[in-house]
Write a structure and sequence with these properties.
By secondary structure, this protein is α+β, with helices and mostly antiparallel strands. It has one domain (about 10-70). The protein contains 3 helices and 2 strands. The longest helix is centred in the middle third of the chain and has 16 residues, at about 25-40.
């Protein structure tokens, strides 16, 4: 497993407002991305989009990486 360090300042704008984010971890970055994806596409479409991404990875790889994190 690889350790990833993130140094980012994200500014997101939409018709009803805006937000600023400074994620430090991949988990925080993923949460921000999912939140923004849901705001833009809606929950169901965002879930379908994420499902398509996970289809690129074999289940064994995901299970192995999950086991390493425990």
């Amino acid at each position: 497993m690889t350790t990833v360090s993130i140094d980012a300042d994200i500014k997101a704008k939409w018709a009803d407002g805006h937000s600023s984010y400074s994620p430090d971890t991949t988990e925080e970055l993923a949460l921000i991305g999912i939140d923004l994806l849901v705001k833009e596409l809606g929950t169901e479409a965002a879930q379908q989009f994420i499902k398509q991404i996970f289809e690129r990875y074999p289940t064994e790889q995901i299970e192995h990486e999950h086991a390493e994190r425990k």
